[in-house]
Amino acid sequence: MASRCAAFATQFPSLAHHHNHRHSSPCCDPHRQSALSWKRTLAPEFLSSSASQGKHSCGLNRQTRSVVKCSAQTRIATNMAPGTPVRPTSMLVVGATGTLGRQIVRRALDEGYDVRCLVRPRPAPADFLRDWGATVVNADLSKPESIPATLVGIHTVIDCATGRPEEPIKTVDWEGKVALIQCAKAMGIQKYVFFSIHNCDKHPEVPLMEIKYCTEKFLQDSGLTHIIIRLCGFMQGLIGQYAVPILEDKSVWGTDAPTRIAYMDTQDIARLTFIALRNEKINKKLLTFAGPRAWTTQEVITLCERLAGQDANVTTVPVSVLKLTRQLTRLFEWTNDVADRLSFSEVLSSDMVFSVPMTETFDLLGVDQKDITTLEKYLQDYFTNILKKLKDLKAQSKQTDFYI
């Protein structure tokens, strides 16, 4: 049966659905499958190429704005065996080694979940996940046949994966996610949590954001019980981008645009995610998580300078340069992926605010806003700890000096 589900995972048109329990060896009735249909109104040349492929497609079009139309018709598959109910605490985390993924894993383990982590085969094993108490399984979203085995015995999937910078965005973030969602549908996953990007529905010209929005719609149409969480930005990302270069007297890269981002601590994101996971009223809802305040790049750099006690060597990249670079990279097929990522940089470098009021969300989750970490507190804790360690190392080095 595993081979049959693997075959379904590689064919986008249909996958079977199970009722409120799952089998350790799932059965799929090929005559009664859930038919997921995906329709987009695009330029004529895309429609002809998509129809010839006979598969679902995100329909990325770099030249035209597209209108999304999604629909799903679901027929319930027949259960061929009594089945064995899975434990509600059994969870698969996809993207477990990432900035957010590892915090999801730690939170899940702390709350008593049996955590399985889907990790791509890699030279450096994810031993830290095993040390924490999670189970690690090797699979790859770009290889759909590897997905079904990871879902056996799983109740909930938390998907915080994204493609690596060196690979095409579409391979993992669209084709891999479609395969994962359809396989989850076929194997009766009870709940699916998907992390997306704030304002992804407003920027079809940016491939990554369009793919996130397409995936949201695909998940909504799949019939799976799900929660979609849009995020604005991670505080953790600011450490490598600003804090470390300032401490090491290296260049800090910024732009001349007044973009404001409400960064959030990934530990808070993980905590709120599990509160939402336990609240049945939030099923099939779309939430957006944002930090207490939206910051410009220059404000973040100024804060880091004050906390570090030293000035930053700032190199400003004009938005016009990003746009020109993107246009040039579009001229060559082998640089298309670079152009796609630069388009995302353009959005982050424009006059936008990546933030939303959180009062209603906090009320829905029963959370006090005072318990959410501010960027000032997060960076202050980081610099206090790192400067103390540097001071201790300096003191130890003096103790080992010998004078004759």
TrEMBL record:
Its main location: plastid. It comes from the Eukaryota. Gene3D superfamilies: NAD(P)-binding Rossmann-like Domain. Keywords: Photosynthesis, Photosystem II, Plastid. It holds the Pfam family NmrA. It is found in: Plastid. The keyword NAD does not apply. InterPro entries: HCF244-like (IPR044256), NAD(P)-bd_dom_sf (IPR036291), NmrA-like (IPR008030). One of its GO terms (cellular component) is photosystem II. Residues 91-341 form the NmrA-like domain. One of its GO terms (biological process) is photosynthesis. This is NmrA-like domain-containing protein. It comes from Stephania japonica.
